[in-house]
Amino acid sequence: DAGVIQSPRHEVTEMGQEVTLRCKPISGHNSLFWYRQTMMRGLELLIYFNNNVPIDDSGMPEDRFSAKMPNASFSTLKIQPSEPRDSAVYFCASSPSGGAQETQYFGPGTRLLVL
Amino acid sequence: DQQVKQNSPSLSVQEGRISILNCDYTNSMFDYFLWYKKYPAEGPTFLISISSIKDKNEDGRFTVFLNKSAKHLSLHIVPSQPGDSAVYFCAASAGSNYQLIWGAGTKLIIKP
């Protein structure tokens, strides 16, 4: 199994531009998580999908952030317009069913720099 | 309000010795705890977990101890190896809640 796949691995953009991050979860996993890691706030959950449906988006910082999961094998996290404070590493993770005591499997992350 | 705290940002240990990483929590509803390991430019990977019904779980060189009365858990690595150099995250969950609450991480450096 290839594990969780994220693209791009690195993204440098200018303030105001739209950024789209992509994630392919592990095949057969029904739950998908988007996280953001910063020095100041550590690892934060942004949004959680189960069976392609957003269950909890309370961690999404503001309306500039949106996430979709059109099918079981693909999800996107979009930032529009991007701001310098969005610079962070964004991780996608998946788990078999999203249960409380399930291991989450992380992708390698996308390092975003907004200038 | 940090519910999961890892107070040591970094730890340096001689190869072959024991590494002890600590984690404290404040929420008494937490009943499942995990340790993840992260190398640079990679995502965190699951290492070991423990349920609140136990006070110890062992997997090879890795042992996690849970002290519920003190709201404290620790990860012991023995013997420490160079490949153990990484950032270690402690995480916790409560009941049926899928959400993991993460500590800030401790960077472990194993010296040859």
Question: Mind explaining what this structure looks like?
Answer:
The complex is a heterodimer of chains A (115) and B (112). Chain A has strands at 5-7, 10-13, 19-24, 31-38, 42-50, 53-56, 65-71, 74-79, 88-95, 105-106, 110-114. By secondary structure, chain A is mainly beta. In chain A, strands 2, 4, 5, 6, 9, 10 and 11 form a seven-stranded mixed β-sheet that branches. Chain B is an all-beta fold and 112 residues long. Chain B contains no helices and eleven strands. In chain B, strands 2, 4, 5, 9, 10 and 11 form a six-stranded mixed β-sheet that branches. Chain B is globular and about 40 Å long. The model of chain B has no long low-confidence stretch (mean pLDDT 95). At the A-B interface, strand 5, strand 9 and strand 10 of A face strand 5 and strand 9 of B.
The termini of chain A sit apart by 36 Å
Q: Report on the biggest sheet of chain A.
A: 7 strands, mixed
Q: Count the strands of chain B? A: 11
Structural class of chain B: mainly beta
Quaternary status of these chains?
Answer: heterodimer
Residues in helix, % of chain B: under 10%
Strand content of chain B: over 45%
Give helix % range of chain A. under 10%
Q: State the order of secondary-structure elements of chain B, H for helix, E for strand.
A: EEEEEEEEEEE
**C-alpha Rg of chain A (nearest Å):** 13 Å
Largest sheet entry of chain B: 6 strands, mixed
The structural class of chain A is mainly beta
Morphology call of chain A: globular
